[in-house]
Amino acid sequence: MRLKDFDYHLSKRFIAQHPVNPRDQSRLLVLDKKMGKIAHRHFFDIVDYLKAGDVLVLNNTKVMRARLIGKKVETGGKIEVFLLKKDENVPLLNKEGIKGRFVSETKPPLNLPLGKGEIEGVWSNGNTTPLSAQGGSAAGGNPSLSGGRKEVWQCLAGGKGRKEGLKINFARGLKAEILKNNGDGTWNVKFNQSGREFMKIVERIGQVPLPPYIKRERDSVGLRQLADSLQNDKGSYQTVYAARSKLGSVAAPTAGFHFTKTLIHRLKNKSVQFELVTLRVGLGTFAPVKADDIVKHKMHAEWIEAKAGVIRRILKAKQEDRRVIAVGTTS
Length: 331
What we know:
Layout: E1 27-32, E2 37-42, E3 55-59, E4 62-63, E5 67-72, E6 78-86, E7 99-100, E8 118-119, E9 151-158, E10 167-169, E11 175-181, E12 187-191, H1 195-205, H2 223-236, E13 247-249, H3 261-269, E14 273-279, H4 283-286, E15 304-305, H5 308-319, E16 324-327
Parallel strand pairs: 3-14, 3-16, 4-13, 7-8
Antiparallel strand pairs: 1-2, 5-6, 5-10, 6-9, 9-12, 10-11, 11-12, 14-15
């Protein structure tokens, strides 16, 4: 298949710039596959199309405020750093033999409780030689980039002057240095904070990573209205069932946006079964397809957690020939 096979025209007037309130008032297009007929309904009408015994599998991930706006140290120019995922290529022990956090595809990269004898953020920028654990401040502090607590993230970087070695200052004392151009549009960026302290700062200074088709231009709205919209996005660009403990996605599982707590209650009263999994929505969801032959497009991996009990119940439903419907689990 060729990329051009998927081209179609979508008028800008059909791209909503603000969410409808309440959420379930959004429009719902229904295709009757047997009859070939299309009906235009509202999302709350989904109650009419689901039946007792159906299983809805929801993605309870929570979107982090992944857009960081900073200034280049050498020029003072603006630069945007978009967090994608924490670097996983860290050693398990440092040279003092103290255990640190090892992250792999089988463990979630954020907000994990530390095990006995473990400390956070002691590793180098992904090289094989780790740094000493003794330079960091247990209380957080404001360590420099040359020692102490730090962590490396794979990021997108926007603006002119992107280069390896570039140092960046953000608000709240957060500092960063671009370590490596990965050659795939992403950059490895080292920060002077790590673990929960890092995420706490990100949640304070970061912006909601709205998709590029959502435009909030100063020319079209006043500054106060723009600020109000950005503030409202922090709540509206999450599902109502997103779990604080599942923070880590850099884009929302948008198929789940339209559920309200009232609608979920109505569906449960109809004996629709709900199951939760966690899939951290990442770069693979929104990275543009550039290969003309789409088979050659490289999809980025995404971390997923599905508990054993959830898997057993889903398999049981399929064995009983009940419908299993995924909501917001990307590709």
